[in-house]
Design goal:
This protein is an alpha+beta fold and 213 residues long. Helices cover 45% and strands 23% of the residues. Helix 1 packs across helix 2 and helix 2 crosses helix 4. The longest helix has 15 residues.
Length: 213
């Protein structure tokens, strides 16, 4: 337990700050993508002055380089929804940096979020019956889903907010699936392929009130 609690503190000591760790994780787990300053702030939830300082440090170290690119953002709702494109300046991982793979492997194997952390962020979204983690949370990046949430009276907006908060900590967009209990139990009984792809491969059950195997 002590080692789990100290994981993020170890990272802070090695890399200098929790903010730098968040930015590094975001870039290294999305190393083909460029991000503008506003996107970095939105994804990591870091204060602007702190983010500027850490981005500059990472650029000086050679991990990041500047890049001009076209940013796409979905605006509007329903039939009025459209993609807004804008030319922006940002940063991307410099593929000439010598230690990309070792850093990525290191950060994958030190997960800043443990069971209790995930549960705390998810527990307020409704009556949770089953909470399963896989993928990025257990160093199994090839699995289909990182997070499975099953429950009743689930509040979509709260779920999306909790997901965004978790994503800001781990540095990667989550692949997640949400079911109400009745729908999940039907799919489970019918040997639904998605459900089997989650439960037949490496995963950990944080909550299991449905008592599935």
């Amino acid at each position: 337990m002590k080692k789990e609690l100290e994981a993020i503190e170890i990272l802070e000591k090695i890399f200098g700050s929790a903010a730098k760790v968040k930015i590094m994780r975001m870039f290294l787990f999305n190393k083909e993508m460029a991000f503008s300053f506003d996107e970095i702030i939105e994804r990591t939830k870091i204060k602007k002055d702190v983010a500027r300082k850490e981005i500059l440090n990472l650029e000086k170290s050679g991990l990041l380089k500047k890049k001009n690119f076209t940013s796409e953002k979905v605006v509007g709702k329903g039939k009025n929804q459209k993609i807004k494109k804008k030319k922006v300046s940002g940063w991307i991982v410099d593929d000439k940096f010598s230690y990309i793979k070792p850093l990525q492997n290191f950060l994958i194997h030190i997960n800043p979020l443990k069971h209790n952390d995930i549960l705390k962020k998810i527990s307020s979204v409704g009556k949770i019956k089953l909470l399963v983690i896989s993928g990025i949370f257990i160093q199994e990046l090839e699995t289909r889903v990182d997070l499975l949430v099953v429950g009743d009276n689930l509040q979509e907006q709260k779920i999306l907010s909790a997901i965004k908060e978790i994503e800001s900590e781990i540095g990667k967009e989550l692949r997640y699936v949400i079911f109400n209990t009745e729908d999940f139990e039907y799919r489970y009984g019918m040997m639904d392929k998605l459900i089997r792809d989650i439960l037949d491969f490496p995963h950990e059950k944080v909550i299991n009130r449905i008592d599935i195997a």
